Amino acid sequence: GAGVSQSPSNKVTEKGKDVELRCDPISGHTALYWYRQSLGQGLEFLIYFQGNSAPDKSGLPSDRFSAERTGGSVSTLTIQRTQQEDSAVYLCASSLVDRGREETQYFGPGTRLLVL
Amino acid sequence: AQSVTQLDSHVSVSEGTPVLLRCNYSSSYSPSLFWYVQHPNKGLQLLLKYTSAATLVKGINGFEAEFKKSETSFHLTKPSAHMSDAAEYFCVVLRTYKYIFGTGTRLKVLA
Fold it and tell me: A5-97 falls under which CATH superfamily?
């Protein structure tokens, strides 16, 4: 079946502009995650959605970052007033939740963001 | 808190020789541990996972890992490296629902 998809695959923007990154999780997966992969910082957790629960936003690096998940499926990560340090690969993952326990996370190909 | 340490940032092996990528974990209880592989400009692919069933876990592409509680280790091995194994490998521990990633080991396979 289809895996996690993300769009765009690459995004180049100018400093100060807003960007939106999209994630389509695997159908039926109720948990959705965003991670960021950058040089020097490795892979870091950003935000977690599970069903109708309040999202865990504890990994968002600043209030310029926000995310939403509409209808329990597609998610959008928005970065406002982008800065050069936001340049990174943004990865989305999804997983099933079985008996209250998250199962294996499956990752999308990522969106490579470059802020000039 | 759970964490993982990948002991080598780079490993080079010759094609056909064994691969050993080292990972140590820190956890107050029996953790869920994973190895993922990332090929250049590709997403993360699950190689294998440990979730307290068998301590020797077999994964895809001939990889396996052994959970050793006494050594708090979860090293990844493969008997014979192939050129296509060249990639970056991440050891991961699950903390509640978040993945905590190691810093990665870049595997180079020499012809």
Answer: Immunoglobulins (2.60.40.10)
